[in-house]
Amino acid sequence: MPYITQNHGDEKGHIMMDIRGLAYVVAQTTDMPRWKNYAENVLGMMTAPTANGGLLVRMDERQFRFAVEPGARDAYAASGWEVAGQAAFDQAVQALRAADVAHVLEDAAFCRQRCAQQVVSFNDPSGNRHEVVWGFKSDFAHFASPKGVSRFITGSIGMGHTVLPAPDFAKTAAFFKDVMGFGLSDIMNFEPPGTEGVVLPIHFLHCNNGRHHSLAIAGFPVESGCVHVMVEVEDMPEVGRAMDRMREHKVQMTATLGQHTNDKMISFYMRTPSNFDIEFGYNGAVIDWGQHIAHEFTRVSLWGHDFSVSQQQLLDKEA
User: Fold this and answer.
1) What are 229-258's pLDDT values in tens digits?
2) What's the pLDDT score for residue 10?
3) What's the 3-state SS for the chain?
């Protein structure tokens, strides 16, 4: 499916990044063996230890897509975004400088940890950490899931998507548009049940690939630092088998099986050992941005996706 290449600047001459996709995410954990068990036996991904006591979690030919690091708490730590090469990386750094965004050109040791040629790190206006990288080091070894998952959908559309808290919503939305070069896919104004007059904005954003969104930002704080990360498989039986593994290993389900209205993903949600959720799904839309019309949708899902299931599980445990 064709898609429109993002502009590298706007009509006012602002320099913007040319992000190609979500390359990886970084998580912190107080219980590395628990993460290893979750990655291998629930997600069906490969793992490898790191020199600093961490874990690289692999879902394709890349050496990792999740970097799990030892930490003082269980939380999401960073989002890694990929650009095409050296020139695009230089442009990304230039965009940060032009917007007067504090940033760090990471040293060689850090780049080796991320298996990349260069890394620049910075925070968005809501305090979320981002890392822009180019030139991944990969051995292109065959991905062999320990649970027989045939494959995860990655490649030129990235590893999936991430949903981040953005309590400083207007500044954060402008940052992703004007500095990082994301485009608006769709909007939702969420009205929490049991409240009156409370409206929480959620924007779904795309970069230079065909995924409906590689990023979404939500106008509220999240203690773990992330609402969820989505990973995608190639057919429905793989989703069902993952649900079976989730139950077998007593992982908390946070939303039942359902299909979203905007990206058409059929998925369920479960909690990670780092306290953010994984959306595990298939059949996500790939968009022709030349034909797409952004809209505000008022329903999260066409069917299913009961997000109250996690609250009910907690009540059942307390009973």
Assistant:
1) 999 999 999 999 999 999 999 999 999 999
2) 52
3) CCCCCCCCECCCCCECCCCCEEEEEEEEECCHHHHHHHHHHHHCCEEEECCCCCEEEECCCCCCCEEEEECCCCEEEEEEEECCCHHHHHHHHHHHHHCCCCEEECCHHHHHHCCCCEEEEEECCCCCEEEEEECCCCCCCCCCCCCCCCCECCHHHCCCEEEEECCCHHHHHHHHHHCCCCEEEEEEEECCCCCCCCCEEEEEEECCCCECCCEEEECCCCCCCCCEEEEEECCHHHHHHHHHHHHHCCCCEEEEEEEECCCCCEEEEEECCCCCEEEEEECCCECCCCCCCCCECCCCEEEECCCCHHHHHHHHHHC
